[in-house]
Write a structure and sequence with these properties.
- 2 copies of one chain form a homodimer.
- The first copy, chain A, has one domain: Phosphate transport system protein phou homolog 2, domain 2 (Methane Monooxygenase Hydroxylase, Chain G, domain 1).
- Helices cover 85% and strands 0% of the residues of chain A.
- In chain A, helix 1 packs antiparallel against helix 4 and helix 3 packs antiparallel against helix 6.
- The longest helix of chain A is centred in the first third of the chain and has 35 residues.
- At the A-B interface, helix 2, helix 3 and helix 6 of A face helix 2, helix 3 and helix 6 of B.
Chain lengths: 217, 217
């Protein structure tokens, strides 16, 4: 029984790594679609989100099945419950990638953000991609130093997110109203993407170390 | 054992109803703070979110404890897992109320939105409040007709959310950039609040009827 359970936990972990890998590809595609106004890449991200959704639903079913059949307690139970929560966060990260891609598609053939903000959004995108890749590796290896790195990357994202508002509300802002709307939404999506990654990283860290960090803000 | 379990499920349900009731009060306060630029009411919402967070963490611990001690299967297991997810959604609804209140506080003593959008935000706020109250009653009574009402209210919110963009991007928009940013964020927060309520309503409906609706978008 114990061996079957360990095998099933590995299956859960493998699937989380798989979904996280797909989320990393989607955010990479989404930020490129966004920064380069590449509408076909945006369509790819939007289509791929259905796959991510399907995989998370399947993973949830597997986790609930494990709870029913194996009736885990203590740390084993926490692992399965955490998997359900990690799955929900990955699903939302996929949604954020999709929302960023949708902005690129809506505005096509126009660019989504004016020149003065392109550098900031390139940085935001690159950080989100780096975070998603580190998250995939963290889920695979449980190397908690990656959780620390993800938190540091998220601090940078928060600073960039605030800088978007500073720029948009500053005196030199020459963007049209549509640019203001897009910059506001896109910055929020990038920031939420990273927040979910931090939330997952905390859970993995907790499972690896046993130190519970309540998950609210 | 079975009787103890039923008693514990009632305890879970009571706590969900309690948290949902607090969320309903918070969104009511938040929308009033927002529409009337009432900064002390905004502070109340921000402080009350800590209480909501604490209650959801406690509820999650109770649910995990029930899983460990009672080892429920089949429908009983789904109820406890659903409670964990409903708790997470209620926590996010509290965050949305807090974000709306924060906008009111940031801009004080200025109003958050210009005159031309005040009617729309009054409607959005009233609908969010109505949804939160119906949700509390749904959690209490499992009267699934309320789930239907919540979905209809959400359709209205989605239409109002789109109308905010139409107005902001329309030729008659005279708002400053800060008004555009605030309207964009506030409208998104109102819409997300309702989305979470719909997501919870679906879960309650599923538990009451046994008809599974996968929870992704």
């Amino acid at each position: 029984m114990r061996e079957v359970f360990q095998q099933e936990l590995r299956e859960v972990q493998d699937r989380l790594v798989e979904i996280s890998g797909l989320v990393a590809i989607s955010i990479d595609n989404a930020t490129r679609a966004f920064n380069e106004s590449n509408v076909s890449l945006a369509e790819t991200v939007i289509a791929d989100d259905d796959k991510i959704d399907e995989l998370t639903v399947n993973l949830d079913e597997l986790a609930i099945n494990i709870l029913a059949r194996q009736q885990p307690v203590a740390r084993d139970l926490r692992i399965v419950v955490s998997a359900l929560r990690i799955s929900a966060s990955l699903e939302r990260m996929g949604d954020m990638a999709e929302h960023i891609a949708q902005l690129a598609r809506y505005r096509f053939p126009d660019k989504v953000v004016p020149k003065s903000l392109r550098g900031t959004f390139s940085e935001l995108g690159a950080l989100d991609v780096a975070i998603a890749r580190k998250l995939t590796k963290l889920l695979e290896t449980e190397d908690v130093s990656l959780a620390e790195e993800i938190r540091n990357d998220d601090d940078q994202i928060d600073a960039l997110h605030l800088s978007v508002f500073d720029k948009v509300l500053g005196e030199t802002w020459k963007g049209a109203t549509v640019d203001t709307v897009d910059a506001t939404l896109a910055s929020r999506y990038h920031e939420r993407f990273a927040d979910h990654a931090v939330s997952i990283a905390k859970k993995v860290q907790y499972l690896a170390t046993g130190a519970w960090i309540p998950e609210v803000d």
